[in-house]
Each structure stands twice: as C-alpha cells, then as structure tokens.
Design brief:
single chain, two-stranded antiparallel sheet, 5 helices, 6-stranded antiparallel barrel, 34% helix, Pnp Oxidase, Chain A, Methane Monooxygenase Hydroxylase, Chain G, domain 1
Length: 195
C-alpha cells in the first residue's frame, strides 16, 4: 500500500539527499550510503552493478532510506558490514525489512519501473511506510559533509587507484580537522584506516 507524505519531514529534499540505504534478503542485512534523487517530486535511486544493494533491490524490489547525522555510520557502511545489533527488523505489508536502529527517521520504498544498464540500475521509489525515531534540530556541520564526500572519493579511489582521489580525500580531511566534531574526526581516522 503506497502512502502520500511530505518528503521534507523525512529529510528528503530536491536534488540528492544522502542517506544510508538498508536492504535485506531473508536474514542477510546490508547497509550502504546512497543518494536518494528527487526531481519534480519523483524519487529515484541509481545503484551500481556488483553491490549487495543492487542485488537485493533487484531481488526484493524494496529499500529503506535511513536519515542519520552519524559520520561513523557513513564510513563503516561504506567500507564494512554493520553489526546485526545496529539493525532492526520491521514488518511492512507482510514483508520483513531492516532499518537502522539509531536513524533519526526512515522511509521504506517500493522500487518500481526498474531500468537496467550495463553497469547500473535506476528505480523509481514509491513510499510504503515511514517512521521518526528522534527529531532533533541540528545545524549543518561542514565536517559531516566532508566525511561523506571523502567516502565517495575513497570508493572511487578503490575502483580506479587514481591519485587524484587521494588528494581530494586529504582536502576533505583538512575540512574535518577544521570544522568537524569528535565523531567526524573519528570517522575520518576510520576512513584512512580502510584505505
């Protein structure tokens, strides 16, 4: 059953909103940073072939966008598997989905109109269920955004080995040192450790 909602109430605005997407197949749970694309009140996701998220969405046709301000969760979900204790299983329309326990909020989406290319899939997203765990007002922190950008460049570096990405990661690390709090600084140390 699809629902109507005000997407801004769940942190999803025009453009690309960075979330941690959770998916599962049976009891196998996965979390990965993903941008939810919103254009003219339509929602999409683009997933690259070869990722667990790609395989799970292709199989199950459902994903959950979790909104979080936790920089450490962004780094850990980029480079490793989260602990089972970080997930919670929820029943949505007779199907089991997984969400992040500590997310500020989440939106479960059905993935429809899936289009496959040689390297990715693009799916339109239709909201099925939402939940708000914590509603706290927080001003943007450049450190968190720098961690997210560093994660993106780190995955590109791992794929290509190009040094330009290392330079970008270092530049974002400098922003974290200047503007980030303890969590963001710890997240950058984790990221450097993964590289």
């Amino acid at each position: 059953m699809h629902i109507k909602l005000n997407l801004e109430d769940y942190g999803i605005y025009e453009g690309i909103s960075e979330t941690i997407v959770t998916t599962n197949r049976g009891w196998s749970m996965n979390a990965a940073p993903m941008g939810i694309i919103r254009r003219n009140d339509k929602l999409f996701v683009r997933l690259f072939k070869g990722s667990t998220t790609y395989d799970n969405v292709l199989s199950e046709k459902i994903l959950v966008a979790n909104t979080t301000w936790d920089a450490i969760t962004f780094v850990n979900s980029t480079f490793s598997d989260l602990k089972d204790s970080e997930f919670e299983s929820i029943n949505v329309n007779g199907r089991t989905i997984v969400v992040l326990r500590e997310a500020q909020c989440w939106v479960a989406f059905e993935c429809i109109n899936i289009k496959l290319t040689s390297d990715a899939l693009v799916a339109e997203l239709i909201p099925l269920r939402t939940h708000v765990n914590k509603c706290r007002i927080r001003a943007p922190n450049r450190g968190l955004f720098a961690v997210i950008e560093a994660c993106i460049h780190a995955t590109r570096y791992q794929l290509t080995g190009e040094n330009k990405y290392l330079k970008l990661i270092k530049a974002y690390g400098d922003i974290v040192d200047k503007c980030g709090g303890e969590k963001e600084k710890e997240a950058m140390k984790l990221l450097y450790g993964y590289l």
